[in-house]
Design goal:
Blueprint lengths: L1 H13 L7 E3 L11 E4 L2 E4 L25 H16 L4 E2 L2 E2 H10 L11 H14 L1 H7 L1 H9 L10 H4 L5 H17 L8
Parallel strand pairs: 1-3
Antiparallel strand pairs: 2-3, 4-5
Helix pairs in contact: 1-2, 2-4, 3-4, 3-6, 4-5, 5-6
Length: 193
């Protein structure tokens, strides 16, 4: 949680964005199924509802991974909604036209299964751009390029494997497969990692 808060603060500083406050709730005071939500102008999170770092079994979440439901990734995802709202001229139910235009321009598949609409698609892409930009560049190069073109700057500039240092081998292997798949579709999708 603390690393996630520090990351979103750094991202906001680098991009000259006002960082929304993060309000934490205990599990007994949290009436939602989701572990977090964004409402202008704050991020609300219930850490006990977030995923733990996955190392075995069916638990796959890992900070900076394609799949990241840990507080680190959840905060970055919710910051993605903040970026959407700040960069939109119209907003409907906390989703702006920034996300609609980004998805249309990039024309790339969703990153995870949590993408019921353009706002969630963009928040997931922004999550990875914030936590592991080289991995986003490698697997969704048009989305990465569109975010850069819109003036967003990543905090991290190292390779995607460095961002996943200490991750289980299966996490690295899944990312490597996705990088290889993207490279087959687009030569610009390759990465040194």
């Amino acid at each position: 949680m603390d690393d996630g808060k520090a990351l979103i603060a750094s991202f906001c500083t680098v991009n000259n964005i006002g960082c929304p406050p993060v309000v934490q709730y205990p599990a007994d005071a949290w009436p939602f199924d989701a572990c977090a939500y964004y409402r202008p102008t704050q991020i609300n999170i219930c850490v006990p509802k977030c995923a733990a770092i996955g190392t075995v079994g069916r638990a796959w979440s890992y900070p900076g991974h394609i799949i990241d439901r840990t507080p680190y990734g959840v905060l970055a995802h919710e910051l993605g909604h903040h970026i959407d709202v700040l960069n939109s001229t119209t907003v409907d139910r906390y989703r702006g036209n920034f996300s609609v235009e980004l998805r249309r321009q990039a024309n790339e598949p969703k990153l995870t299964n949590y993408c019921p609409d353009d706002g969630e698609w963009a928040a997931e892409m922004l999550r990875l751009f914030i936590t592991n930009p080289d991995l986003l560049r490698a697997i969704r190069p048009r989305t990465h390029a569109a975010l850069i073109k819109r003036g967003l700057k990543p905090v991290h500039t190292d390779g995607w494997r460095s961002r996943l240092a200490g991750a289980p081998e299966r996490t690295i292997a899944l990312c490597a497969r996705r990088v290889d798949e993207a490279a087959t579709l687009s030569p610009k999708g390759s990465s040194n990692g």
